[in-house]
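Morning. Coffee machine broken again, so started the prediction first thing and wrote up yesterday's gels while waiting. Chain of 222 residues, entered below exactly as on the submission form.
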Amino acid sequence: MKTALLFDLDGTLVDTDHLHLDAFNQLFAEHGFQVDRPTYTARIMGKPNSGIAEAFLPHMPRAEALALLTRKEAAYRDMVGEQLTPIAGLIHLLDWADGHRIPCGVVTNAPRANAELVLAALGISQRFQTLVIGDELAHAKPHPLPYLTGLERLGASAAHSVAFEDSPSGLRAAVDARIPAVGLMTALAAAQILEIGATLAVADFRDDRVRDLILQRMADAA
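Came back before lunch.
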């Protein structure tokens, strides 16, 4: 089976965590509390809204919590606008992958409306052959199903592919899917990324080890 590259969205293709945090706090202020960056990283980042409602808003009726989070997503989309810049080296990596005929996909816990907006704002919607939304499946990350679904859609094998992630839940999903994972140090330190089981921890896509790992996976698939 062939090699594929599977990318998380927020914090991996683009650093949007500050916008998410601002949107959360805009809505949470109505309920008398705020979230700091460490709490966001530990309890919210990379999780689907269903998981955030269960883990972070257990004191609220589920329907009320989900309604609040739906409003948060709308607030986030209002903030996105034209201010997004891809993580350094991403476009060159996508060009390189295209030249090597390596299919690429996005695997995210973000709502579809968010994902499509961000990809369009970055001008890279057409660079990906599939978009997997965790909450549209039976299980979102940290379950491996979203990554397994991405592999299936692209006709690729886990051992010969590479996943790119930045959050604990996303890294666990990729590792449990048995895909070699590259962790972006957008929010986590290298030691945290490697402890979860990632193969590499990098600052951005310009790190030469990224392409070396992909070439290694391709060679093993040949």
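The mean pLDDT is 93. Going to sketch it on the whiteboard this afternoon.
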